[in-house]
Every structure is written in C-alpha cells, then in structure tokens.
Amino acid sequence: MSDLIADDSQQLIGGKIVRGESPLNLEMPFEKLEGFITPTESFYVRTHFPIPAIDRDAWWLHVEGEVESPFAINYEQFLKLKSVTIPVTLECAGNNRNFLQPKVKGVQWHLGAVGTAEWTGVPLSLLLDRAGVKANACEVILEGTDGGMLEDPKGPPGKLQFARSIPLEKARADVLLACKMNGSDLQPEHGFPVRAIVPGWYAMASIKWLQRIIVTDQPFAGYYQTIDYAYWKRRAQVGELTPLTEMQLKAQIAKPAEGETVPANSSVRVHGAAWTSNGEIAKVELSTDGGSTWNETNLLGEPQPNAWRLWEFNWQTPAAPGNQTLIARATDSLGRTQPVLRDADRGTYMINHLLPITVEVR
Amino acid sequence: MSDLIADDSQQLIGGKIVRGESPLNLEMPFEKLEGFITPTESFYVRTHFPIPAIDRDAWWLHVEGEVESPFAINYEQFLKLKSVTIPVTLECAGNNRNFLQPKVKGVQWHLGAVGTAEWTGVPLSLLLDRAGVKANACEVILEGTDGGMLEDPKGPPGKLQFARSIPLEKARADVLLACKMNGSDLQPEHGFPVRAIVPGWYAMASIKWLQRIIVTDQPFAGYYQTIDYAYWKRRAQVGELTPLTEMQLKAQIAKPAEGETVPANSSVRVHGAAWTSNGEIAKVELSTDGGSTWNETNLLGEPQPNAWRLWEFNWQTPAAPGNQTLIARATDSLGRTQPVLRDADRGTYMINHLLPITVEVR
C-alpha cells in the first residue's frame, strides 16, 4: 500500500512521528511512554483513506443482514444507549515493521503503533440483540465510512470501503462501539462519531467511522482480510491465507531508547510495556547483555484484561564504557513466550520476535 | 506471475505458440481447430514450475486427511482400478487474456488455451470410498508434485506445491484421476503419471502430477485459490475474494482468423467451438457486421456433458472489399448468454465477453 519511508526522516506532527501524510499515519515516539493510559494527543493514528468528515446530525449506523429486524440509529439515539468504559490496548498489526530485515513494503512503524485508552461505548451485543440475530448467522461485518480507490492490481476494481469481519461469538462477547476515548468524544482521526473496539485483536478490526454492521451467514472474504491483513497459517505444512486476528504476546522497551547514552556504573531505570491476548502478562524479563542472562522485571499496577502491563527494572550499568544490547521478553499466563526469530509466514504483520536495541554506556 | 510476452513474437514449439519457456506455456493456434478431439500434440500446455520428472516405479498417490483408512497406491495398483473414458474440455482460466485492454500481467493467451481430449482414468469417488470419508469432511485438496519458490511477495515463503481444493460433493460427482489422454499414457507435460480432470471447471483445478489427495474438514485457502486463481465476487455490493471454479459460457471463432483475407462475394465457412459448464450449448450466433445482425450457426455432432460443441456457418461475403468484424455469441440451456462487456471484478481471469475479430474481404 504505502511506500517505504526512511526511518531517519522524523518529521513530527503534534509530537508524533509522521509515517505518511496521505493517508495520514502518525506514530507515538515510544520513549514518551509514561502512564498506563496513553494521552489521546500521543495516540498513534492509522488511516487507509482520507479521514471522513462526518456530520454528527447526519450520521446513521445501520444494523442489517441476517437479523430479524434491521434498523438504523442516529448519534442522538446512540448516546442514549447504556454504555460501559474499559481500557483496551490497540496495536497496529504492522507495529515494529521497521525492524524487519530485509525491508518490506508497508508503513515503517517502529515501536509506537500501539497505545492504551479508556474507551466508552455500547456493547455490540446490545445492538445485535435488538436486531435479533438469525440462527444461521456466523459472522458480523463492520464497515467504515472510509473508502476509496486502491492502486493494488490484486484489489477489487472501483471504490472500496474499509471493512472487516469478526466471528459472531467474539462480536457478542466483548466488542464495544465506542464514542468516547479517554473521556472525550472521539476525534476525527480516531473514528468520530463511533468506532469499534475489538479487544485483544490487532487494531485493523477496530473499524473507525463505523456506518454498517452486517450480520452474515458465511465467512467474509473482503480485501482487508485476504489480500491485506492476512498471513500464511500452516496446516499439515501447507500455507493457507488466514485473516489476522489476535495480537501476539510482546514486551517493548520504552527507555532507554535505541542509540541512547546512559551513564556507566549507575542505576538506570529501564521501563516499557507488555501485552498479550486472552491471557495476561505473567512476567517480563530483561537482558542487558544481548540475551546471555535474563532478569525478571517488576510488573506495575494490576493486570487488566486486554490492556498492556507496564514494567520496570533498575539496571546497574557496567563500569566499563561501551555498547550494550537490551532485549525484553514477555511470558503470559498461557505459558507462551515471545519467539526469538521471525516467522516468515507472517509476511509484513504480527511482528513479535525479540527485538534487541543498542545503548551506549559512557 | 509471468511477465507480458508480446503477441507478435510467435515462436513455435511442435506447432504450438510459445507463451513462456520457463515455466513452459504453449498455446494451440486456434485456427488449427478441426475435429471434436484435440490431438495431444496440439493440446495447450500450462505449467507453473519445471515439469517434474516422475519415475513410474517410484510414484505413489496418497489419500489422507479426514478419512477412516488413509492409504497409498503405486502406479501398477492404480492401473488395476476400474477406469472410465470421457471427453472433457479443459480451458485455462486466463484464456483470451491477450484481448484485455489495458494489458494485464499473466501469460498472454490468445484463443488457444483450450482443448478437448478423451481422458481415461479412475473416478475420484472410488478412492474416496476406499479411504472412507469422515462425516465432518467438506473439501478434497488435490496436490501436485510440481512446486518451487514463488517470486510473489504476497505468497507464502519457502517452497510451494501446486494445490487446489474442490467441494466434497463435486469430488464425488464426476472428478476423474486420469492416466491416459486420447488413448495413450499421459505425456510428462500433461501430468504423467496421473492428473485430475475436474469437468466443467477451469483447468487450474485439474491438478497434474498428482501426489496427494487430502480430505479436509474446513475450506482450503491455499495460494492458488486466494492470491492467484481468484476473483472478486460481489455480495451486497461488497467484493469478496473467491476461488475460480466453473468455466464461463463462451464461443470462439477458429476460422477465418484475425487478420485473415477472405474472397468477396463468396461462400466462406466460418467455424469454431463453444462450451459452458453445467448446462449445454443451446445455440451459437454469428455476426459478420460487428454485432448489428446475428445469424444462428449450425451446431455439429451431439451434445456431450462437459465438452465443447463445434459449430459452423456459411458466410456469404459481401461483394464490396473491405474489413468485416466477426463476433460469435453462445447461449446455453440454462438461458445464459455471453456478456457484451468485460467485468472488471474478474481481474485477469474468466474472460468470456464478446471478442470481435477483423477479417479482410478482398
């Protein structure tokens, strides 16, 4: 989709790194990680088309397809529905792509296409129950207002809307239709007036500028879960094109950052965040010697479902100056640990192998 | 996959037009169409990888997956199974691609990536029954011995085998595992020792150099039915990536050929072939004036399921010299007629809109 953008051309907009202007793609400098909640102004922005300018008085959300009573509601009606507020971590499926060797196409995200916000909205199950899902239904397609023409010769001709499906069971379980982010109305770049939040899944599923919810009786094979946002899953050694879904277990170091200088023979705070899907973070280990030895870090706060866990470690830096390689490694409550090496079947997505960074002790 | 090959570089091998040498792709010059059966030496050749050199004494065909009793048989055992002989028309899903404007990637087939042979082989149902298909099975994957590395960045990494799936119902109905073509053992380029014949489907499903039959309990999403050999099928206006299956209704003119000169004020035999899937050819019409008026042609022989029907028409050419545009149009027993215009959702495949050719009356 997007061409390679050199990592060193770090133009900033509002303190975020510009990874693309048209469509707009902005990354949080991950060394700015502080609290559990990412401030809205720091939250990364991922778009595929121009940001739709939606008039709240003209917006309708349609619920249709394999339902007994299709309906549409406007923004005023939507706001009257019972809402909940939950923290959810969203990560772009291509986060860390800039680390891949050799370079691959796609937005060259470093560490910051991830963030955690408090999302306020209406459970999707509430709208599904109101429409009355038919017995033959199996999936729910979420369709955004964003769309346009693709340049991809493998894509469908004509105008395409951004859309993605989720299994009905997941749709009923915990998907939220959010109208507030960190207590304020969604900003245009984050999906105003209403976006989906699909907890635990890569954020391509959390459709912004939501306009249609289509219940369907067969698996959806739209562009954004086949040609794009898919990977090769092996079954009996044979690769099958499979839509991306759940976020993969990962720990990232926020500080010190790649190339940073730290004082020798001192106590330096190393900190970052770690997240997984389904389970919770059990431990985060840190190596300061390129993976020879590992130290367990301190997990901060309390675990919350579908949100990252911050961690820190007090590093006693060596007395001798020189480069040191830092690596973080997460393990979750399901016993999973990050892979050491990249799995090529994942193409340009789901990057969660160990990512060493180098700092200079001086 | 393959790069554009100019149409005017008509290098010939064995009387066939070379559309690619590595992998080998050879087209029958369609003006050579004569009888109902295409001689083996004229039959088009489509390969994706080097032609496997298979020793008949070392070959095994495996039947596995969701079956009660997986087994393997060798060539000698295979030849002892009860066989049938049927004529089946095979057409490459990209046949006529050379007519598309603007030009698209892929082998630049003109009219001759189609042919009809007598295939002798064992019904797939016989092997499935012997293995005992489990109740949860839904598809049968056919895997060839041909394989290699892809250059497509969208493809799976590593070595890929050519493979395709068919629904269990179709697999049981009429799929043949052929060991003879027109009465002789298969030639290496046609899939020796055993290839599948999937009647009515584009030929990418008729896997050559068959090595494995895998019964599966979920739809297969391999490379050759997702990234390649797929099209955009619309459901409620939304395009979904869908594997190519059945051949589309089509009539082709063999003679006179594009650019040929015919005598003025004479009776000229126009002839060709027409085919469809499921139904049979009901009529073939010919226009000699660019589509203003249409004449019904004579259908030759008797209809045979899953095979083309030859047709002819005696054209009284005009007295005045000049160019004339000829168009053939087929209608089948299901009431379908060829579309006038190209459907862009089909990408580089399923080309069956009306294809005018120009001849010179002199």
What labels describe this entry?
globular; 362 residues; 25 strands; Sulfite Oxidase, Chain A, domain 2; disordered N terminus; Immunoglobulin-like; five-stranded antiparallel sheet; homodimer; mainly beta
Short characterization:
The structure is a homodimer of 362-residue chains. With 362 residues, chain A is mainly β.
How would you characterize the overall build of this protein?
Two copies of one chain form a homodimer. Chain A is mainly beta and 362 residues long. Chain A has two domains: 12-243, Oxidoreductase, molybdopterin-binding domain (Sulfite Oxidase, Chain A, domain 2, Alpha-Beta Complex), CATH 3.90.420.10; 250-361, Immunoglobulin-like (Sandwich). Helix content of chain A is 6%, strand content 40%. In chain A, strands 6-5-14-9-10 form a five-stranded mixed β-sheet. In chain A, a hairpin with a 7-residue loop joins strand 20 and strand 21 (295-296). In chain A, helix 2 (124-131) crosses helix 3 (168-174). Chain A is globular, with a radius of gyration of 21 Å. The two termini of chain A are 42 Å apart. The model of chain A is unreliable at 1-7 (pLDDT under 50). Chain A binds chain B through residues 65, 104-105, 141, 143, 153-154, 156-158, 160-161, 163, 214, 219-223, 226-227, 232, 236, 238-242, 344-345, 347, and chain B through 65, 104-105, 141, 143, 153-154, 156-158, 160-161, 163, 214, 219-223, 226-227, 232, 236, 238-242, 344-345, 347.
